Amino acid sequence: PALSALMSFSRLPDYDGSLKMPEPITASLALVGMTVVSWLHLQPESLHAILPWLHDGCMMLLMGSKSFLAAIFYLAWLAHGAEAVYAVVILAGHKTWFRPSTALAWFIVTFLVGYPSLGQLLKEARAAAPPKPPSKRS
Hints:
By secondary structure, this protein is mostly helical. The chain is 70% helix and 0% strand. The chain has 7 helices and no strands. α2 (24-42) crosses α3 (44-50), α5 (66-93) packs antiparallel against α6 (100-113) and α5 (66-93) packs parallel to α7.
């Protein structure tokens, strides 16, 4: 409730670059996925102690390969970092949207959630783009 009240300014009719929360289901799935991959890579013993079925199931899917898990971990966080930087680049392209507080909020949420957050920003950027002139046929 407090977070939605804090973010209620993002529902203004004229979009100003304010943070819009991504779809809850896809954002939750991305956040849970990143949490499990990180936990499995960084603290596998604690995951096994608390949720042995999750640890064993994930390791079975990975065929026990810790190097494959490490590759997934680093590539996933690298992709989220690139998406977060791209979100700031999109904001910078719209001079009226770019404010340090807005850029920081988009960066953090996109870094944690990934494409569900970036997709919201891309949708707003496409809606704010000026319409393309009709092409002339010769």
